[in-house]
Known about the structure:
The chain is of the alpha/beta class. It has a domain at 111-371: Type I PLP-dependent aspartate aminotransferase-like (Major domain) (Aspartate Aminotransferase, domain 2). It contains 14 helices and 13 strands. The protein has helices spanning 37-40, 76-87, 110-116, 134-151, 163-181, 199-206, 224-230, 255-264, 297-300, 361-397, 426-435, 463-482, 501-506, 515-520; strands at 155-157, 189-193, 210-214, 237-243, 268-273, 292-295, 315-317, 329-333, 336-340, 402-403, 413-416, 442-443, 453-455. GO terms for molecular function: glycine dehydrogenase (decarboxylating) activity. This is glycine dehydrogenase (aminomethyl-transferring). Residues 1-64, 482-521 are annotated as: Disordered.
Amino acid sequence: MSMNSQGRPTSPSAPSAQPAIKTVSGSRGLQQREDLIFETGSTTKTGVDLPAPKGGMDRLGGVTRKKSVGLPGLSEPEAVRHYVRLSQQNYAIDLGLFPLGSCTMKHNPRLNEKVARMPGFADIHPLQPQSTVQGALELIDELATWLKTLTGMPAVAMSPKAGAHGEFCGMMAIRGALIARGEIATRTRVLVPASAHGTNPATAVQCGFKVDEIKADARGRVEMDDLKSKLEDSHDIAGIMLTNPNTCGLFETDIREIADLIHEAGGYFYCDGANFNAIVGRVRPGDLGVDAMHINLHKTFSTPHGGGGPGAGPTVLSEALADFAPVPFVVEEDGVFHLVEQRSGEGSDAFGRLCAFHGQMGMFTRALAYMLSHGADGLKQAAEDAVLNANYLQSRLKTVMTPAFDGYCMHEALFSDAFTAEGIETLDIAKAMIDEGYHPMTMYFPLVVHGAMLIEPTETESKAELDRFCESLLSIAEKARAGDQSLKSAPYLAPKRRLDETQAARKPELRWSEPDKIAAE
Length: 521
């Protein structure tokens, strides 16, 4: 919520701490050194030589290129090797455990990919006549039914394309309800816990509301006394945006009381569903008093996310908000599916349209394939295994590291830097993890925990892989506790050494220049 006041140097320390082995080529074993494509290729050559065209009419209207565009030319082997070598410098869920907390980087079953590529799903167009895409519309409708059943909510907007987009949808539905009540001018305040995802307050402001932060208590949950004090004068309360399980990896045990208090104040309860992976099949948000909640299909139901593909953030709505769901939405009549796309008739109360078309069809297909292959009992087991894995990881790591809060966690384990010796930062631990072959965990988030390290193993990791990860992290944690200064210069084995990330962020070099030009400048 607030800016992190903890300073942390990101430039490398002791330059003397260099790897023991250097190679002439710059490669390290099977990991090839690779320069920028501008350094590899030459602007004076091309990978394909074509003769100048003879005859014919110039149809470029006098804008024919008269000088080189400055792009390097590569042969086919050079181009292929360049990108293959770069790909070997990436970390991926197919390579190893991806410990990012609050992200749910779980395995994407290949079955989902096969189904998404089936003709009739992969090759349709949103502007086709609806009579020719009945199967796709039925799929959207069936997926919507699963989402409503799993959440205990009567309506769902399918078009939001990511988590923050889903938040925007839910808050716009709340705004629409307040407009219908004639209270949009007075109900302008939205309560947001200190441990909320950063998109929550941003979304509230984007929708025209003012944000009022609620403190976290010593257990990492909403401070109820602070919440109640902010509701004493409730005439301007529009609602609350709360994540459950929250960003500390904990279930908000007072959530039912929170919902009742908000409703008594005349507001609506928005729940951030980014962590739904921890409670699917165990808890229905609708039973907790939630009015709106987005669901990250790309986290809970395994569809690729991040660099792996677009997200999808359907938003379920309570009876109080169902009429304000955005268009378009799918309706079935006598076995025929059609889209309601206008704010008239069935869609007359809709707050509007979120995007040009109907959502992310590829993500819908993958998510439904995941649901059907697991079944309701399998989804429940996945949530239980995610919680089990996180608690196993917390139990093993707390022998050296310091859990941020007492007791069991949900789907992710949160640690503080209290165990580290003076001068050793969370950043140093994260960089050392690269040498062990792991992507670092989420660092310095949530901000309510000093030097936070948030780790989410998900349900897809085996005990053997969890043990391998724990042994690696424990070895680093022991060094951090002992004040081992070698951590300050990690990583040693990565393709590139530690960079000055602060300078890179403040003064990024976005355009390549030839070395002689740089020297001249």
